[in-house]
Amino acid sequence: MAKTVADVMSRDPITVKPQTPIKEAIKILAEQRISGLPVVDDAGSLVGVISETDLLWQETGVEPPLYIMFLDSVIFLENPARHEQELHKALGQTVGEVMSTNPVTVKSDQPLRKAAKLMQEKSIRRLTVTDEQAQVIGILTPGDIMRAMAAEFNE
Fold first, then answer.
1. What is the pTM of this model?
2. Are 19 and 95 spatial neighbours (Cβ–Cβ below 8 Å)?
3. Where are the alpha helices (DSSP H) in 61-141?
């Protein structure tokens, strides 16, 4: 029988709220040795994800966008809106200011193979598992999938 996401996901993951201070999120990630956290509202519904990548802006800072001057006009060689978003992440003080919105999610009854393919296609390191009310019920990581694969060899 094919495995589902529910068979291998990590249940009851640690979550944070948008108003959680960045320092607290960093501390949780470091102490728990995890690379990201689901962000939930007061009702427990998923509103975003904060990852190590989102937090790296705090350390690296932001380079101004490349531009050229031509006849007293500024022509940006990169999207200035992207620079503004990066600056916001670099200066953010709460999870809500830094998190990625619209996270990719899966349902617990989804076949594991399909979830693994989604992770590979989207180049993401974690899928938040939600129920029909968008409540977070688990996290699926490549490590969870590897442990499931290894368990099959022992059977």
1. 0.74
2. yes
3. 80-91, 95-98, 112-122
Strand partners, 76: 67
- Write the pLDDT tens digit of every residue in 29-54: 999 999 899 999 999 899 999 988 87
Report the alpha-carbon distance of residue 141 to residue 102 in Å, rounded: 18
Integer angstrom CA distances of residue 146 from 25, 68, 116, 150: 26, 49, 10, 6
Q: Are 7 and 116 in contact (CB under 8 A)?
A: no
* CA dihedral sign, ordered 28, 30, 33, 39: positive
Separation of alpha carbons 46 and 43, rounded Å = 9
DSSP strands (E only) in the chain:
10-11, 36-40, 46-51, 67-70, 73-76, 105-106, 127-130, 136-140
**Three-state SS for 60?**
helix
Task: Point out the residues of the chain with pLDDT beneath 50.
Answer: 87
Both structure tokens of 46? 């998923």
CA distances from 14 to 77, 82, 91, 112 (A): 40, 30, 24, 22
The dihedrals phi and psi of 63, each to the nearest 5 degrees, come to: -90, 140
State how far the Cα of 104 lies from the Cα of 79, in Å rounded to an integer.
Answer: 24
